[in-house]
Amino acid sequence: FQYLKRFDQGYNLDTFCYKAHSVEGSPAECLQQFLLHCGIADPSWSELRNFTWFLNVQLQDCEASVFCNPDFVQDTLQGF
User: Fold this and answer.
1) Which residues form a coiled coil (predicted)?
2) What angle do CA 65, 70, 74 make, to 5 degrees?
């Protein structure tokens, strides 16, 4: 949710890193973001769950990768 919210607001996501147990927004706002970005017009709860699970795994991998660390790559992969 935090990544999607910042993406919609035009923030640079290269420098953002999720902090465990940090809470932002309301449950309704979170659901609205997921519905907006999941890519299905009328998703089931199962489809939303799969979307959020997949997105979470991908973002965790991205945060753990040295190639996505802005301090390591600096500006060599801008926009990647």
Assistant:
1) none
2) 125
Cβ atoms within 10 Å of 70's Cβ, excluding its own: 14
Dihedral sign (CA 3, 34, 45, 23): positive
pTM for the complete prediction? 0.78
Task: Give the whole-number percent of the chain exceeding pLDDT 90.
Answer: 64
Count of beta carbons in the 10 Å neighbourhood of residue 10: 7
32-51 pLDDT, tens digit each: 999 999 999 999 999 999 99
Neighbours of 31 (CB within 10 A): 13
Between helix 45-64 and helix 27-37 the angle, nearest 10°, is 90
